[in-house]
User: Fold this.
Amino acid sequence: MKLRWWMRAVGGLYVLLFVVAALLRIPIEVEGPPGTLARASAGDPLARFVVDTWVTLGLEFGAVGAALLIFSREAARARALIGAVVGMELAGIVADIYKISRGLPPPTPYVWIVIHTLIIATGLRWLRAGHTSVTTSPSATVPASSRLRTRALDCLAASLVIRQAPGSACRFRSSDRS
Assistant:
């Protein structure tokens, strides 16, 4: 249940980041050189490249945010998506450290490092807390071989994301094979 709400909270944040970066273009005003948007409107190719890059990043956030919101209904089956978010947040920390090393003034990159860290820590916590309850419930409409394959993939993903030995988080039942 907590994983579902984590996905909704982070998904909402990502959709907000889409609006802020791709539509409102606030990061360009805050982090970019003064006049970048005006120069882009005037046709400056370098300024247009900066705008296009931020719009692209915003679209990426929007896509992942929408996926988190949509798949939060079945959070236990969307574990790989959570791993992708953790990876994006780690990349965000690296990007902020890079910006700091290039002279971006505080507090913006430091605030974002805290946000990235909170998303990673809470995501991994709820992912680990729910790993024992992640199972694919058998259904009469799904062939046994598909259930076993799905369960095996879920277990492999769980072992990679939460760094457990393969198979230690999963025990196969005889009903998975029949």
Remarks:
- Residues 132-142 have pLDDT under 50 and may be disordered.
- Residues 142-178 form one domain.
- The CA atoms of residues 87 and 120 lie 9 Å apart.
- The radius of gyration is 20 Å.
